[in-house]
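Hi P.,

Sorry for the delay on this. The queue was packed all week, but I finally got your sequence through. Input first:
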Amino acid sequence: MIRTIFDHELSEVERALVQMHQDVDQALGRALRAYEYAQHGSARALIAADGEINARRAGVEEAVLRLIARQQPIARDLRVCIAAIAIAADLERIGDYAAGVAALVLRDTLTPAPIPELHDLSRQVRSLLSQSITAVVERDATVEHRLAVADNDVDARYAQLLQNSLAPRFADQASLRHYMYGLFVAHNLERIADRAVNIAERAAWVATGLRRK
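Then the structure:
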């Protein structure tokens, strides 16, 4: 009976993480659309809603602490609890990055002129994030290496964007500022990819008890 209760409560924590991921991914998608189409109203709504993601993180932390206090888990069960708190923190930070993209929408005064490279980068980063949370639910230790390799590609794409920004391609200061805001968006995406790798590393740690060196 005790084990059944523990498994149920642990499943609730994992469902909360999955829901948090869905909220964060939705916020990121909306923020990127708001940036591409200069949707100021949507950007303001996203910034205002960031507190809801913060509250979800707090809810996960409280649920895990109650679970530890009542059930006193050991071995992998304890690793799951510890990892859940860390993953909630990573997801909350990704929500902050999405809000940061929305904030850029309100600062950019130009008519949207999408940076093509951001489309592929955003799709890749959101895919990494989805794979990482799936690894958590499935206790999959194999995703960690794949995401680390993919993250290197994200870093290279971001570096290429930075290099392009140094090219003499801007007719005026406003155009340069617009492109620099695009680089800030790319920077947030690069940091989100890093957080996705963190989540995958914790999924592997839960599954194996080992940490990647």
